[in-house]
Amino acid sequence: MTVTPPTAGAETPRRSLRSFRSSRGRETWAGLGMVAPAALLLTLFLIVPVVLAFTLSFTNARLISPNPPRFVGVDNFIRAFTADPLFVQSIGNTAIFALIVVPVQAGLGLALAVLVNRKLRGTTFFRVVFFIPVVTSIVVVSILWKFLYQDDGLINSMIDAVTFGLWSGNDWLNDPSTALGAIIVMSIWQAVGFHMIIWLSGLQTIPEELYEAARMDGASPWRQFTNVTWPGLRPTMVFVLVTITIAALGLFVQIDVMTQGGPQGATSTVVYHAVRKGFGQQEIGYAAAISLIFFVAVLIIALIQRRITREKD
Questions:
Q1: Neighbours of 62 (CB within 10 A)
Q2: What pTM was computed for the model?
Q3: What does 79-90 look like in DSSP terms, one character per residue?
Q4: Taking Cα atoms as reference points, which of 89, 114, 36 lies closest to residue 265?
Q5: What is the DSSP letter of 67?
Q6: Whether 256 contacts 243, CB under 8 Å
Q7: How many CB atoms are closer than 10 A to CB 86?
Q8: Is 100 exposed, middle or buried (0-12, 13-18, 19+ CB in 10 A)?
Q9: Which of 13, 49, 93, 126 is deepest in the core (most CB within 10 A)?
Q10: Coil, strand, or helix at residue 59?
């Protein structure tokens, strides 16, 4: 029997195939290596906490306890709505905060963006001034405003000076009727510069030719805004509303630094209540249930916002 040696023409495709497989394998391993850090972080800080919170929400687990956790079904969820008035009050405070902050902060940010978008001298200076609170730590801002809101603080001194002593102001953070409003004002002031920058980037994507055409047609500044500026800002508007809503619903730092949920629960929010129950009172199972309720509420609001904006598109 004779053996026919492989020809040079048959070796060439095999070498090319091995070379292709080897190159493709290297690319695959390189891709997996680049994805691995992000996948590991997402698993550790997102997937594992969500699964753990979902599991603990159906137990009576405590943070430090010699007794093992016991399955209690939906008792934690029933307790939140029927036997925990502070949780219900926290839902109301969070809703009030979001309903006021979202439109006011978005509107002020848009107004400031329109002002600093004009080609006038000194606009760069005002952009920096309006943006400075954003780059300042929210903890530092909260501490400063806590001093301003004191009974003998700067705000009451200014009110006393302007009214010539007829009204001496109020102890803003220790009065249940004014504490949440004081935090709303501070929160709007601190974050409005960030949304001004977002609106400003949207304004600068609108072609100048559209404004020239509108002016040639005799459109007033208000007509230019409603017919040219606002339609061009629709994608920016969606981003701004979503980011403000998520930030407003997750209100925590200002409450923790300035009032600790008081006075009389007037400034307690859902996130602050969950943290206080979980780490302050060590009821980690009940805190997980509150967190799960909060997650479902935020998901529903996000879906509603997405639905509304998609219909407008």
A1: 16
A2: 0.81
A3: HHHHS-HHHHHH
A4: 89
A5: S
A6: no
A7: 14
A8: middle
A9: 93
A10: strand
Which residue is associated with the tokens 């929400």? 57
Q: Angle 62-67-72 (CA atoms, 0-180°, nearest 5)?
A: 65
**Of 250, 199, 237, residue with least CA distance to 97:** 250
How many angstroms separate the Cα of 283 from the Cα of each of 38, 105, 112, 250?
A: 32, 35, 45, 20
Burial 182-221 (b: 16+ CB within 10 A, else e): bbbbbbbebbbbbbbbbbbebbeeeeeeeeeebeeeebee
SS3 content of the chain, % helix, strand, coil (to 5): 75, 0, 25
Q: Please choose, from the candidates 123, 57, 38, the residue with its C-alpha nearest in 3D space to the C-alpha of residue 292.
A: 57
Phi, psi of 42, deg, nearest 5: -60, -40
187-207 pLDDT tens trace: 999 989 898 999 998 888 888
CA 148-150-155 angle, 5° bins = 45
Where does 46-121 have alpha helices with state H? 48-56, 75-82, 85-116
The rounded distance, in Å, linking the Cα atoms of 26 and 10 is 25
Mean pLDDT confidence for 8-37: 71
Q: How confident is the model at residue 24 (pLDDT cuts 50, 70, 90)?
A: confident
Q: Are 228 and 214 in contact (CB under 8 A)?
A: yes
Whether the CB-CB separation of 258 and 145 falls below 8 Å is answered with yes
